Amino acid sequence: MHLSIVIPAFNEARLIERSLQSVAVSIGANQKSGFTSEIIVVDNNSTDNTPDLAKQAGARVVFEPINQIGRARNAGAAHATGDWLLFLDADSLLSPELLADIVRVIESGKYVGCGSTLQMDGLPWWASMTLRFWTAVSILCCWAAGALIVCRRDAFQAVGGFDQDLYALDEIRLSKQLKRWGRQRSLQFTILTRHPLETSSRKVSLYSGREIAAQIFRIFLLPKKTLQDKKHLSVWYDGRR
């Protein structure tokens, strides 16, 4: 099994080194015969030294000039050589325990892919409730959070990868497409729950509750118009870091 870990990164100089260190530690703890891996960081037109830090940490860096998360993930997948793809956000920390769960899913031969529940520290009550709600929906519907999604490379290619018409929540569409592809081949898509992925809660620090609520309501009320135009997705694309 050869696993390609793809990390899209836009101006992630503050967090990319810690994320890559967590990946290296997790890989080291899960070394076994027949398991190989590569780490690809997609520089999504950063204006800081994100790509230099990624290279110094030993990652292969590729460049995607158009600032769009799905496009960056697809660019990384296009350079990947693994038969499995693991997409990880640059503000997230992979743990050895979670990677071990992922490896077991892959080796079982029963799955087309998986996601993970999330852990965020220091959340205010309203954000904690929102995360609990998302966790319940994610598990019930088998929708992966964008912070981590894993899938077979052949399935990813067959469904067309991440939808580049969408500037956010493209991971939900990909989850649906992977589940459909998997069902046709008696393969499952699952959400791992034993070891949640630790991911940054920085959006809660950078944006007010009112701003985040307004963003969520706009997506619910005008999903197509909002998700297909990044000027309506400030929480993702206004550059705050």
How would the blueprint of this fold be written?
Blueprint: E1 2-9, H1 16-29, E2 36-43, H2 50-56, E3 60-63, H3 69-79, E4 84-88, E5 92-93, H4 96-108, E6 111-119, H5 125-141, E7 148-152, H6 153-158, H7 170-183, E8 188-199, H8 202-206, H9 209-221, H10 223-227, H11 234-237
Parallel strand pairs: 1-2, 1-4, 2-3, 6-8
Antiparallel strand pairs: 4-7, 5-8, 6-7
Helix pairs in contact: 1-4
Task: Give an overview in words.
With 241 residues, this protein is α/β, with parallel strands linked by helices. The protein has a single domain, classed as Spore Coat Polysaccharide Biosynthesis Protein SpsA, Chain A (Alpha-Beta Complex), CATH 3.90.550.10. Helix content is 45%, strand content 22%. The protein has helices at 16-29, 50-56, 69-79, 96-108, 125-141, 153-158, 170-183, 202-206, 209-221, 223-227, 234-237; strands spanning 2-9, 36-43, 60-63, 84-88, 92-93, 111-119, 148-152, 188-199. It has an eight-stranded mixed sheet, with helices on both faces. Helix 1 crosses helix 4. The N and C termini lie far apart (36 Å). The mean pLDDT is 95.
Please give a quick description of this structure.
This protein has 241 residues and is an alpha/beta fold. 45% of the residues lie in helices and 22% in strands. It has one domain: Spore Coat Polysaccharide Biosynthesis Protein SpsA, Chain A.
Radius of gyration: 17 Å
Number of strands: 8
Name the overall outline.
Answer: globular
Average pLDDT rating: 95
Tally of helical segments: 11
